[in-house]
Write a structure and sequence with these properties.
This protein is an alpha+beta fold. Helix content is 30%, strand content 24%. One of its GO terms (biological process) is cyclic nucleotide metabolic process.
């Protein structure tokens, strides 16, 4: 991926944090993928490194002054899906309305012209939480089986209750133009 990305992670103390981390690891093993990663909803990508240059934390701290309050940011799961893009091979779709305000602010870093970020959120943004990065084909039967594994682990794919998503969270900046194995937060801001 070119540039860096802003991700929304569940709060560190939320019960989904260790559960989703474990599910990502198990899913990667199950489908023979070497990639594991932090559980996250991508807010935007393609952020040029020149924007945050030598101090990504100061840049994120400044951007965070425009973030909505934690209570106005909610991740609510909708369903399990298979995608055609490597980093979206198996995802949990997330309702857009709970993260669109935060995603718009994040996207304004990339889409500077008035109205462009809002248009991107409305027309192109598909919030999701990836469970697998891979180029393999995933059958309907495999997806259905994985859905059972996810639900048996306690995740509510219908978005209900504490295990159906989270409120607030932690925004991190990740240099996604590096190798996936090197995708680690370079700046962190709790909502």
């Amino acid at each position: 991926m070119p540039g860096s990305s802003l991700w929304l992670l569940p709060p560190p103390s939320h019960p989904l944090t260790p559960l989703l981390t474990s599910l990502i690891s198990k899913t990667s093993t199950r489908f023979s993928s070497p990639y594991t990663f932090l559980p996250h909803v991508t807010l935007t990508s393609d952020i040029p490194s020149s924007i945050y240059s030598s101090d990504p934390q100061a840049w994120l701290d400044e951007l965070a002054k425009r973030f909505p309050p934690a209570a106005e940011v909610s991740v609510q799961f909708e369903k399990l899906e298979v995608g055609n893009i490597f980093v979206k091979k198996i995802t949990v779709r997330v309702r857009k309305d709970g993260v669109s305000g935060l995603a718009k602010i994040a996207r304004e870093v990339v889409e500077a012209r008035a109205g462009e970020a809002e248009k991107w959120v409305e027309e192109a943004y598909l919030p999701h939480l990836s469970l697998l990065y891979s180029a393999i084909e995933v059958s309907d039967d495999e997806l259905s089986e994985l859905g059972g594994v996810v639900e048996n682990a306690g995740v509510d794919l219908g978005g209900k209750g504490e295990m159906g998503g989270w409120v607030g969270g932690r925004v991190v900046s990740v240099q996604t133009d590096k190798k996936i194995e090197e995708w680690e937060p370079i700046a962190v801001k709790d909502l």
